[in-house]
């Protein structure tokens, strides 16, 4: 009997590495090489910093989506939710309800986070208590959040009125700390927090369990509805954090704010190796996926090989290709 | 081991072989489930296949009926070498399989079901009348007079099974394979079915008959082939083989040692009292109690409501009734509450409700008792690793390495992992549903030892099982359920299969004896 080895940890060898976990990082490396060949400016620090900064919205939202999808859910409403949170946040900023620029901005940020959390809570409660497919629920709320934004903007856009406030808020997107752009820092902080929660806490373990098999989770004494609902709340908070970085960029919310972000966020999650059926969540893979999406767009702009108007088509193709690769790696 | 092979294997029958399987092997990935099986079928014989769960019976049947291709070996039908392309191909060669589960469309009529997928037409219009007549003749042939226009969901289980058999026999057949046809039948229905098999046999077809009920095999079979651990033990004349011999051949050693010796049970005060428990749609007014150190069995037919009753008590299903734990009234809304109160439940559905097959052993082990591994906010992974080492030792979980996924373990090791997972909670009451389903005999013995060990430690155990010998072997007392109600209780010398069958089916003692001991 060879079961004497049972108590020893298995030695890691090359063959043991889970290709699905590594694949996104390999793809990212390949893109770097490809980008460098296409245009020497690609590897410039300015260009790369710019790419990472621009990936911030999708990366942060996709971290939330990693939780939702790991637990076996789906949230299609993130793009509309971002527009809605941005719209309400700017409307609040425009009221000037709190004295002092920084006080005003801090209050608006808190409001945005609360709004995002509540939107997520709504998605979660309708899904779990109503026992409706998350696909349908978030399709519905996607329409609701979008329409509410357009209604608040009266068909146009919602812009920050106070120039001083704009100037005070601007650094959150355009500023840097020791040369590192603030959006990049936000990505890192959110990702580290996300990874901590997903991998090291009881809640994260429960997310994986619920996504793997809801019945097993229930029979193991886990409150499935609570876990599911909380993943949507986390998603909502992530959307709000993305909005905090987004608003100073343009200082406005428009009917097209956040359009197709749900596609990009889900694509980033799937490219990153998180299983769409739940049970496997990879935060760093998701970040990698968001970077890949942004890099592909960047290379398209720099290379002239494909019209940049086709970026959406390329991103759409990437999610399909990523799924095909996951399938074939999974089948080995 | 040769000394237990008292009955000598029968010589292969002469000439006229309908089906011959030679050196059949089957592997799934690295796991070999059948090795070098040889089997011959001649016209007009009832050939029983017996073996423990996991002995490879179903795999062999699937190969013989074209549902699976063998990895090695040859099949000859009527002396002609054959490789089936699928079940339809096998049917065209006269081999039909009657599935264990009922696979009928419940909203269609008997005739529509019998002709499903092979409807008769006149031009483009269905020829309802001819089909109705054909269907009626088909069920009459089986000794049942069922109106072919009846909708199937209005039939009893036994009638449905007859319809299913009639449907299978509509294909011109030389060989009929029955996969545990009597598993959910009452004694009376079983008798009727055995008559049907006699009728098929009389038409000179061969019948392959899989069953766990050895007395029944003794009654009906002409020859018996025994499988053990995927290997052929031998083929024997049923006339020379008593049920006890069959059991010995199946297990490979004396079966009387399977159940651990138990010292006179030292049961203590009442731990759990259940009164008038009703699980809507499943059980009505069930009352029972459980003592400290006791092993209480729950017997009954499939669908009698045993699982649902216990799931209702521990909060996994909506239920009404009073539950007292150590004298205190409790009402569990979910399994977390019952776990915290010290009651754990190990589901019969290990793969669907017990373990996360796609996750590691460690994640599975600590899932229910995760609170014990949380320090501050963090999960203490080192203590999780230690717990896994401990569990692997304590429960003898055999695994190549500890990074395997739970789904890669054998059924027996999965059950041990599930036990380890629930024992981490330090329960006072352990409910185990079908503890040895799909588990090999060696592991069974370990599980029995473990269960009796729990009772000896002063824990109370409830075992739900469909295997009566198992309940009789390890329990102090057995509650028998029928149609959602507690039909009675047996203990001491009354713990016999016949008495349990009487309570479980409502049959008379005489009928039960016929089934339990073979008519």
From TrEMBL, chain A:
InterPro entries: ABC_transp_permease. It comes from the Bacteria. Keywords: Cell membrane, Membrane, Transmembrane, Transmembrane helix. It holds the Pfam family BPD_transp_2. It is a multi-pass membrane protein. It is found in: Cell membrane. The chain crosses the membrane at residues 21-43, 55-74, 81-99, 105-126, 135-153, 173-199, 229-247, 283-303, 309-325. One of its GO terms (molecular function) is transmembrane transporter activity. This is ABC transporter permease. It comes from Phyllobacterium salinisoli.
TrEMBL record, chain B:
Residues 19-254, 265-508 form the ABC transporter domain. GO terms for molecular function: ATP binding; ATP hydrolysis activity. The keyword Translocase applies. Gene3D superfamilies: P-loop containing nucleotide triphosphate hydrolases. It comes from the Bacteria. Keywords: ATP-binding, Cell membrane, Membrane, Nucleotide-binding, Repeat, Sugar transport, Translocase, Transport. The keyword Lipoprotein does not apply. Belongs to the ABC transporter superfamily. This is Sugar ABC transporter ATP-binding protein. It comes from Phyllobacterium salinisoli.
């Amino acid at each position: 009997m060879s079961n004497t080895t049972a108590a020893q940890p298995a030695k890691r060898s090359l063959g043991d590495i889970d290709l699905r976990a590594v694949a996104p990082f390999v793809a990212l490396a390949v893109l770097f090489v490809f980008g460098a060949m296409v245009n020497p400016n690609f590897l410039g620090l300015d260009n790369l910093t710019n790419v990472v900064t621009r990936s911030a919205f999708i990366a942060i939202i996709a971290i939330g989506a990693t939780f939702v999808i790991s637990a076996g859910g789906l949230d299609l409403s993130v793009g509309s939710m971002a527009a809605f949170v941005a719209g309400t946040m700017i409307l609040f900023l425009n009221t000037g309800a709190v004295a002092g620029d920084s006080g005003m901005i801090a209050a608006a940020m808190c409001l945005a986070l609360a709004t995002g959390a509540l939107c997520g809570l709504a998605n979660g409660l309708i899904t779990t208590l109503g026992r409706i497919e998350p696909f349908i629920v978030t399709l519905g709320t996607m329409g609701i959040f979008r329409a509410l934004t357009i209604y608040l903007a009266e068909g146009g856009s919602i812009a920050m009125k106070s120039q001083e406030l704009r100037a005070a808020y601007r650094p959150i997107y355009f500023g840097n700390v020791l040369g590192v752009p603030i959006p990049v820092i936000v990505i890192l902080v959110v990702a580290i927090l996300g990874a901590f929660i997903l991998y090291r806490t009881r809640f994260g373990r429960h997310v994986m369990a619920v996504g793997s098999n809801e019945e097993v989770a229930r029979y193991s004494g886990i409150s499935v509805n609570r876990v599911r609902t909380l993943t949507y709340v986390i998603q909502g908070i992530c959307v709000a954090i993305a909005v905090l970085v987004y608003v100073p960029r343009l200082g406005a919310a428009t009917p097209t704010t956040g359009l197709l972000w749900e596609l990009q966020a889900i694509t980033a999650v799937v490219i990153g190796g998180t299983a769409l059926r739940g049970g496997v969540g990879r935060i760093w893979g998701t970040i990698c996926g968001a970077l890949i999406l942004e890099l592909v767009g960047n290379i398209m702009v720099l290379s002239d090989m494909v019209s940049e108007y086709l970026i959406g088509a390329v991103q759409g193709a990437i999610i399909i290709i990523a799924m095909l690769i996951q399938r074939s790696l999974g089948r080995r | 081991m040769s000394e237990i092979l008292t009955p000598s294997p029968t010589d292969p029958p002469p000439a006229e072989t309908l089906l011959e399987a030679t050196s059949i092997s089957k592997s799934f990935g690295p796991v070999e489930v059948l090795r070098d099986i040889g089997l011959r079928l001649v016209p007009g014989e009832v050939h029983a296949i017996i073996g423990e769960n996991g002995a490879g019976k179903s795999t062999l049947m699937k190969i013989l009926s074209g549902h699976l291709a063998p990895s090695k070996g040859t099949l000859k039908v009527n002396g002609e070498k054959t490789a089936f392309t699928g079940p339809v191909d096998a049917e065209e060669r006269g081999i039909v399989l009657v599935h264990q589960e009922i696979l009928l469309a419940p909203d269609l009529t008997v005739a529509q079901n019998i002709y499903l997928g092979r409807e008769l037409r006149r031009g483009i219009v269905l020829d309802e009348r001819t089909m109705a007549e054909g269907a009626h003749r088909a069920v009459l042939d089986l000794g049942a007079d069922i109106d072919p226009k009846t909708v199937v969901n209005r039939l009893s289980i036994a009638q449905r099974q007859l319809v299913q058999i009639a449907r299978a026999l509509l294909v011109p057949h030389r060989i009929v394979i029955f996969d545990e046809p009597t598993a959910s039948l009452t004694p009376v229905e079983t008798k009727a079915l055995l008559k049907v098999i006699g009728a098929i046999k009389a038409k000179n077809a061969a019948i392959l008959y899989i069953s766990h009920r050895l007395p029944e095999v003794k009654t009906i079979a002409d020859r018996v082939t025994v499988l053990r651990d995927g290997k052929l033990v031998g083929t024997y004349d049923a006339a020379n083989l008593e049920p006890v011999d069959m059991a010995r051949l199946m297990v490979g050693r004396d079966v009387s040692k399977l159940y651990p010796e138990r010292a006179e049970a030292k049961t203590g005060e009442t731990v759990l009292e259940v009164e008038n428990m009703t699980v809507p749609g499943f059980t009505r007014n069930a009352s029972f109690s459980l003592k400290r150190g006791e092993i209480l069995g729950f017997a009954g037919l499939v669908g009698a409501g045993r699982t649902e009753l216990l799931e209702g008590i521990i909060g996994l299903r909506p239920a009404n009734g009073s539950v007292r734990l150590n004298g205190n009234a409790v009402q569990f809304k979910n399994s977390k509450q019952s776990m915290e109160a010290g009651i754990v439940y190990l589901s019969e559905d290990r793969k669907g409700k017990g373990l996360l097959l796609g996750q590691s052993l460690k994640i599975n082990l600590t899932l229910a008792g995760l609170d014990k591994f949380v320090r501050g906010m963090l999960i203490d992974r080192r203590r999780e690793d230690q717990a896994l080492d401990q569990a692997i030792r304590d429960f003898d979980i055999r695994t190549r390495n500890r990074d395997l996924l739970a789904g890669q373990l054998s059924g027996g090791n999965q059950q041990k992992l599930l036990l380890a997972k629930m024992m981490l909670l330090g329960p006072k009451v352990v409910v185990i549903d079908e503890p040895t389903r799909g588990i090999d005999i060696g592991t069974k013995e370990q599980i029995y030892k473990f269960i009796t060990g729990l009772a000896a430690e002063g824990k109370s155990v409830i075992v739900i099982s469909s295997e009566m010998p198992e309940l009789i072997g390890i329990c102090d007392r057995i509650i028998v359920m029928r149609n959602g109600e507690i039909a009675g209780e047996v203990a001491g010398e009354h713990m016999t299969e016949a008495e349990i069958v009487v309570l479980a089916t409502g049959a008379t003692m005489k009928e039960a004896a016929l089934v339990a001991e073979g008519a």
